[in-house]
């Protein structure tokens, strides 16, 4: 959506919903613009990484799969 010019709209929606919302953010390629958005709109985020950080673009092309790590799920409420 960012490549199509929707960053402003995504940020606007995030700023107009309740602050206690649950937000899920998925991206096959976590580029710097997406990381900035995540830092700005997510509270206590949990990051699930498939492969090595920074390798996302290569993995999506090669089809390589496998879960590498889950960062801090202690704050998750079920």
Automatic annotation (TrEMBL):
Respond yes or no to whether keyword Nucleotide-binding is given for this record: yes
Task: List, in alphabetical order, the Gene Ontology terms for molecular function in this entry.
Answer: ATP binding; hydrolase activity; RNA helicase activity
Q: What are the annotated GO cellular component locations?
A: cytosol
Helicase ATP-binding domain mapped to chain residues: 1-48
The record's section on PROSITE patterns has: HELICASE_ATP_BIND_1 (PS51192)
Record keywords: ATP-binding, Helicase, Hydrolase, Nucleotide-binding
Q: Which PANTHER family match?
A: ATP-DEPENDENT RNA HELICASE DBPA, ATP-DEPENDENT RNA HELICASE RHLE-RELATED
Q: What is this protein called?
A: Helicase ATP-binding domain-containing protein
Species? Ciona savignyi
